[in-house]
């Protein structure tokens, strides 16, 4: 069972942004200032710049392979299951720790005003967010959006009031004091670089969204756009917010302060009743830690799900509940988070989590280079990283440099995690996994290890994503040539069609014939009985060309399976020719043809049609919308001179457009339909199919 696609653009933005605000704003500025002084502002800015290569790389791979598992899935499919295991387990542990400490932050900030136990409170909230995630990503992200909206409003007010007090001159005790910035680099260049790596953890939620890519609607648009908006908003709030803290508190006091946002607030919001501002910022902190904890459980639980699907964990963790969520994976994640809350101390965790994530980002940047050079045709990202490959090379080098500045202790933790993951793979996984990564498709010397199933898996993902908005599929169907024949020899048929297309495209018919004849099935699992897809590529094709041959008596086509030559009886042939410079588009169009051919009763329906026009209308029919004209001599006459509110339509469909005399408009309840109007109706597939049978096939 697949996860439901319930998350839109604002869900992506909210999950990504919510996963970043917590310790990064409310705790880390003071700790970071201890190492570099006022230049902590610059450190936050540089960290936001240095995470951009990883963001672009994650966005590209996520739009090509929108699957749960995030870094694990990317590394497994690019560098192989060993690297996938290391990246998956390591990232899972890092995210567990990050989420655990966000939940501890709830207890810590709440305890400022209420006498409650910190860790027990954190455990209670872990359970609450676990329940929310069990009952659906949509419900969980709904809470997330509320948390993020409130948080952004409060932090925006904090920054605005801070700038007003600093630069307006109305508050003599706060105004801009240049001595707060002297010296700017208290730890020199080394201190700045270390601090940049130290606060890197503040941005880790940005790429965390990749682990729920499978549940995102229109991932090719929503993932890169949501991540970019999230980085922009978060980066501005970090830089401006820390500037306010440095200006209001001063460097010396800031470097010893574990709650700098609360301290700064006590000198701001003077226009509110006493301590009101402090209450507001503490509530904001609670919202921040809550949003990070909620988003953390949502995204982190997808790692055991993805690894279980690939036999790296027990298959129990791949089970999807009737709510469309991975309940066993959520329960495992929540249990480990609770364990970490109870037994772990805080010291050094930020450095440990940052260091391992830097290692993962190095690998992800390299993965983009591997995927691009693997030449796997079905690797088809809807978004491509800019400045490739220099963006990825810069990301690898900068991440490696920051890792070494984080200290030997953090490097040792990363190395130990890698060794443990390697041991798990060697003793528990290797015997169960028979695949290799895309890297074996890159290096010709390792070609004997090329894993053909990887291309098939990518092809299935390509089919699920469907066409792009600029793909001329419908236009190609409309222009297609339909040939009704009684019988033919397969080779003669192919030559005839090749010659016909060659005249249309002004290309050599014999070379086109050869390409058609050597066409092999995309994947044996995609072969449809009595249907054959033959395709070719030619340079400088203005638009794709499609010819469809219908032979009710069937034509014998020779096919070689496992070295044995057999003959298949084919009734419907699709011949598609596309521009060789756009092979990805050809794969998407072939996938869409396959989707059409997999309709229920496809063969029977096609041969019930009498004309080429009817065949084209049938091929254009989509499972979620339908378009048909109102004609007094056809079944659609029941709508003529009727108001929309009087039309007998299923409850789960909607008339969204009426074409009349060359113009289009959206109808209202009192709109009267006229003869020759063309209605466009959307709705649930079952009802759309009924309308199709009633108003199109019945003609």
TrEMBL record:
Residues 471-622 form the PTS EIIA type-2 domain. Its main location: membrane. It is found in: Membrane. InterPro entries: AA-permease/SLC12A_dom, APC_superfamily, PTrfase/Anion_transptr, PTS_EIIA_type-2_dom, RCK_C, RCK_C_sf. It comes from the Bacteria. Residues 613-697 form the RCK C-terminal domain. It is a multi-pass membrane protein. Keywords: Membrane, Transmembrane, Transmembrane helix. The chain crosses the membrane at residues 7-28, 40-61, 82-110, 116-135, 147-167, 187-206, 227-250, 278-299, 320-343, 349-371, 392-425. The keyword DNA repair does not apply. This is Amino acid permease. It comes from Sediminicola luteus.
